[in-house]
Amino acid sequence: MKITLIALLSSFLISSAVVLAAGSGKALGSPTASVTIELYSDFACPHCKEFHDETLPSLITDFVNTGKVYLVRHYFLLKFQYSRLSASYACAAEKIGKYNEVSDVLFLTQRNWGISGNVDATVSSVLSPADAQKVRTLAKDPSIAAEIERDTALGTSEKVTETPTMIIVHKGERIPVAGVISYPILKMYLEKVLAR
User: What pTM value is reported for the model?
Assistant: First the structure.
């Protein structure tokens, strides 16, 4: 009986870790969902802020959290002054499991740090001092810059030219949707895709 209980507990902990890993960084939801949305955005882009604030929460609640959509967020740097810096901090935060907190505060306070350039203070406001120091150090690591460049290059290979851009993937078909799209329109579209 002890062995069976230990085996069940081990299995539960392993499967729980997989679920947490699927939702603790840039990727949210089940990788086996029938639709994947690859979202390219820039933390300094006002249209991305609009998408993040007005469309993304309902998309996550109605489609990602219900297992219908797997959301993969990518960095795509535009020509804003603090695009690279904000992406570096978010990417570093992902490495310590704090991507969502940092992503949310960057969009929430975009107007402030977009003018002042004080991304460090913005990010530090949602982290413990120890985590803020880890993120600060990681943000300068060349591997962080390389990851951001890979995401941007991937977007370029997908013909992304503006943000936000979603690549909606279903049954091998890749459909690009550029610009801000309201949640009711996106919901209607996803329901049609899922019905196919």
Answer: 0.85
